[in-house]
Amino acid sequence: MPVTQFELPDKYQYQNGLGSYHETEAVEGALPVAANNPQKAPYGLYNEKLSGTAFTAPRCENQQSWLYRVLPASAHSPFEPRETDSFNTNPGDHGRDRWHQIPNQLRWDPFDLDETVDWVHGLKLVAGAGDPTMKCGLGIFIYAAGKDMDAHQAFYSADGDFLIVPQHGALDVQTELGKLLVRPNEICIIPRGIRYRITLPEGPVRGFILELYQGHFHLPELGPIGSNGLANARDFQAPIAAFDEDTENEYTLLAKFGGHLFAAKQKHTPFDVVAWHGNYYPYKYDLGRFNTIGSISYDHPDPSIFTVLTAQSNHPGTAVADFVIFPPRWLVAEDTFRPPWYHRNTMSEFMGLIQGQYDAKTGGGFQPAGASLHNVMSAHGPDASTHEKASNAELKPMKVGEGSMAFMFESCLMVGVTEWGLKKCAKVQADYNAESWESLKPHFRRPTPAKLVNGTSNGVPGSIGDQGQVPHWTS
C-alpha cells in the first residue's frame, strides 16, 4: 500500500482534501445553516471570520474560514514583548543580526536535540530571504524540543505559513480548528495566524520548517501529466472540530510578529472553536502517498517532478518556495547516468534528510537530521564516490531510496544564512567540498587522430588553434 507504516498509530479523525471547502461541528447544530454571521449564533457562540487572503482576492485564490467559538480571539490583554535572548528569528533589517550571503556550498552535520526547551523556544532560524514585515520571502528553521508547551499556552505566527517536516519524534498539534498527530514522514502546514499548542507524545523532537512569508502553498500544476499524480488532493487531511471549554483559568498567548516574540494574557482557552467552515485551515500529508513519476526511457527529469507543494511568485512557473521530496522509487532509464546530474541553478536549494541515505550523496557526509544549501548558481551534484559507482553500474531496473526520505526547500530567492546557522550551531562541515568534489578526476581522452576545430588549442600552452575557423582573425 502507498502509505507509511507508522509505529505510532493516529488517534484523531480527519477530513480529506486539499483546497476543499470543509465544514465541521463538535456539537450538533453549532454550525449555522446558510448564514455566516447570524444575529445570534447557535448556543450563544460568537461568530468570527479568519481570513488568510485579502477580502477582495479573486475567488479562486480567496482563503477564509468562519469560526463559531465560546469567546472571540480578540478577548485578551495587550501584547507585550518577550525575551529576545532565546527567541529572535528575524536577522534582516529589523533584527540584531544580518543574513550572510555567500556562494559557498554548505552542509551541516545533524542538528542536536534539545530536551531543555518547548516548541516555541526550540525554533532556530538557519537561513532565509526577504522580510516578514513586508510579506516577502521565506525563513528556514530547525526545531528541536524536549518539553510540552504549557497546558495554558498557545502560539501563532503572524509572519507566515509554517510547513513543518518532522525528522525525529511525533508532534501532537492542538489547533483552534482541531487536532493533528504529525509523525516523521508526514508534513504539516499551519497557516499564518492560526493558534496552536504542541505536545510531544514520544519525547524529544527535531525537524525542519519552511515559513512562507508571502502567499500560500498549493499543489503544482500537472500539465501533460494529466489529472492525477505526484501529491493528490484527496490524501491531505484537515482536522475536525474539537474544543475545550474553560473561562476560568489564565492563558498565555504567544505571537511571532516581525520575527520577535510577544505575549498576551486571557481568561479563556484559545481552543474553544465549537464549529467551523471554510478553506483556510491546518492540514497534514503522509509523504508515503506521493505518486512518484519519472522517465521510463532515458535521461533524468528535472527534480521539479518531485514537487509536493508550491508557492508561486508573480512570474508563473517560478516559485518563491517549492517543497520537493526524493522518496523510494524505481529507476529503469537506459544508457543514463541515473543520480541527479551536476548542475548550477538560478534557484536556491536547501536539502534535508529525514531518514536513510540520499542516493546522490552516498559518501556518508549527508546524514539524517543534517542539511545542505546550494545557493543561486552554486555548482553541485553527486559526490565523487556516487559518480564512480553510477558511471559503472549495471543498468538494470533498480529501486533506490528504500527506507529513505530526503527533501528540498527550493526558492527563486538568494538564500542567506544566519549567524546561528553559519557559526553558533557549530554544525557546518568545513570539508564538504573536499569530501564531495575535489577528488573528482579528469577522464577525458582525445581521440587519435583528433581534428581540432573552432579555435581549440592543441594542448600547448599559449598556442593557437585552427585560425581558419575564425573569419575575423588578424595576425
Automatic annotation (TrEMBL):
Keywords: Dioxygenase, Iron, Metal-binding, Oxidoreductase, Phenylalanine catabolism, Tyrosine catabolism. Its EC number is 1.13.11.5. InterPro entries: HgmA_C (IPR046451), HgmA_N (IPR046452), Homogentis_dOase (IPR005708), RmlC-like_jellyroll (IPR014710), RmlC_Cupin_sf (IPR011051). Homogentisate binds at residues 358, 380. GO terms for cellular component: cytoplasm. It is an enzyme of class 1 (oxidoreductase). It comes from the Eukaryota. Fe cation binds at residues 343, 349, 380. Its cofactor is Fe cation. Residues 453-475 are annotated as: Disordered. Residues 289-444 form the Homogentisate 1,2-dioxygenase C-terminal domain. One of its GO terms (molecular function) is homogentisate 1,2-dioxygenase activity. Gene3D superfamilies: Jelly Rolls. The active site is at residue 300. PANTHER family: HOMOGENTISATE 1,2-DIOXYGENASE. Belongs to the homogentisate dioxygenase family. This is homogentisate 1,2-dioxygenase.
